[in-house]
């Protein structure tokens, strides 16, 4: 299993939207969708096969999705833990806050 970090998502994005975005690269096993204090959403997505995350990063990083430029990065270490930034991605002031989470297995 491989994991991607997707940042810069609009507040209206749903887990199903990420499944549709990433399905061309492999099977989406789990979507962990979160909000930060600036109402920008980010997600960790577990995918199979192992090569799926790298292919998604090469194709989708810095692409446009629902009117926003997103970052798609392969997380080293996969979904085995220890790969998530503490408290989520940094806000504009450099702090890390997580205000909400929605985690769905598929």
UniProtKB/TrEMBL annotation:
The keyword RNA-binding applies. PROSITE patterns: RRM. One of its GO terms (molecular function) is mRNA binding. SMART domains: RRM. Residues 2-77 form the RRM domain. PANTHER family: OS02G0815200 PROTEIN, RRM DOMAIN-CONTAINING PROTEIN. This is RRM domain-containing protein. It comes from Nitrospira moscoviensis.
């Amino acid at each position: 299993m491989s994991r991607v970090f997707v940042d810069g998502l609009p507040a209206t994005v749903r887990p199903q939207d990420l499944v549709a975005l990433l399905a061309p690269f492999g099977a989406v096993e789990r979507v962990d969708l979160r909000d930060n204090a600036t109402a920008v959403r980010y997600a960790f997505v577990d995918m199979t096969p192992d090569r799926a995350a790298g292919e998604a990063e090469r194709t989708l990083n810095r692409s446009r999705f629902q009117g926003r430029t997103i970052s798609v990065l392969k997380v080293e270490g996969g979904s085995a833990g220890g790969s998530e930034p503490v408290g989520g991605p940094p806000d504009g002031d450099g702090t890390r806050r997580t205000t909400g989470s929605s985690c769905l297995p598929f």
